[in-house]
Amino acid sequence: MNIVYSSSDSYAPIAGVSIMSLLHNNTDADEINIYMIDNNISDENKKRFENMVDKFGRNIVFIPRPDLNKMSGVDIEVGRWNISTFFRLFLCTILPDNLDRCIYLDCDTVVRHSLREFWETDLEDKIVAAVDDCRSDRYKTELNLPCDSTYTNNGVLLIDLKSWREMNVEKDFLDFIIAHNGNITYVDQGVLNGVLAKKNLVKVIHTKYDAMTVFFDFNFKDLMKVRRPEHHLSEEEYIEAVTDPYIIHYTSCFLSGTRPWNENNNHPFVGDYLKYKSMSPWKDFPQYPDVRKKSKKMMTSVCNAMPKRMMIAGISLVHSKLYPMVRSLKGKRRG
Fold first, then answer.
1. Side-chain half-sphere of 273: how many Cα atoms within 13 Å?
2. Cys staple from 84: which of 6, 256, 264, 279, with CB 3.0 to 4.6 Å?
3. In whole angstroms, what separates CA 87 from the centre of its chain?
4. Beta-carbon-side half-sphere exposure of residue 335 (alpha carbons within 13 Å)
């Protein structure tokens, strides 16, 4: 298996926990080659990565970060994200040419089971596999996608690199970024969906491979009310994903607020994160304090204090209608 991560030095301890979980639960793999896109990782943390991976008899390679602003010719707007989130779109340039397939994992993930079945997924006529992001169709409208198209999350990707090269999708990604002046909703996720979903080249896989925090913060019925997805997973798939996820994706969510590397986090699977942290070279690193802005903390407090039905109605309006509408209007002004 070829596994790709992208990390800065500040995120190295979190990436280290993810890699530890990957190594521990995939001893059945004949080979694991980890490619770490190096966004200024310190020598000390690189040594920690190398020692940890070496104990499992696996390989890790650090690859210099590309200059995406130079490649695109525009200043890419990343908002609250790191520029490294865009790197997954340019893996054909970044990775060795002899790699035909890879799994891309966000650093804020924990792998709980073998990924053999996922790795061997038949993509058929598609060139990437990902989990549905459970969003309103209005997010597709901004990307000029038809309502019945896919819209997936970029946190876990199975990529057919050979086809990406043959189809020169990196040029399409760059053209999309330039056309939007680098300002795209959900950054790289918007780009991948705007280009590949439009061509019907994305295979949607089981949610258990990218179980995001929002799935744990809301039960199925409330999730449907909050996100208002016109096309969505079944309740059976939802239950399977939250009961026994293969890959937990510790995304941020307004309701729970913090994440497992923060003090006093209450994610249902925080124990998994702490378990693999205790097995990693970063086991003695203290949990991070909650350094969110006051407005974010207030949002979490207010949402948890409000009557549930009122909170869900308000958040639903913002997430499914107002936010995508505002983004769409901004896009028209840019055009």
1. 21
2. 6
3. 12
4. 10
- Please give the span between the terminal C-alpha atoms of the chain, in angstroms, as a whole number: 42
Would you list the domain boundaries of the chain?
A: 2-334
Environment class of 43 (CB within 10 Å of its CB; exposed 0-12, middle 13-18, buried 19+): exposed
With a cut of 80, say whether residue 76 has pLDDT above it: no
Q: In what order do the strands lie in the sheet with 128-131?
A: 59-64, 33-39, 2-8, 101-105, 156-160, 128-131, 202-205
The CATH fold of domain 2-334: Spore Coat Polysaccharide Biosynthesis Protein SpsA; Chain A (3.90.550)
pLDDT at 331 over 70: no
**SS3 state of residue 159:** strand
Run of H or E residues at 5: strand 2-8
pLDDT in tens, 266-322: 999 999 999 999 999 999 999 999 999 999 999 999 999 999 999 999 999 887 777
CB 26 within 8 A of CB 2: no
Render pLDDT for 106-127 as a digit per residue (tens, 0 to 9): 999 999 999 999 999 999 999 9
Task: Tell me the two tokens of residue 65.
Answer: 């970060």
- Global pTM value: 0.93
Contacts of 157 (CB under 8 A, 6+ apart): 88, 103, 104, 128, 129, 130
* Residue in 63, 65, 45 with CA at minimum distance from that of residue 53: 45
Q: What is the pLDDT of residues 177-213, one digit of tens each?
A: 888 776 777 778 999 999 999 999 999 999 999 999 9
* Pairing mode of beta strands 101-105, 156-160: antiparallel
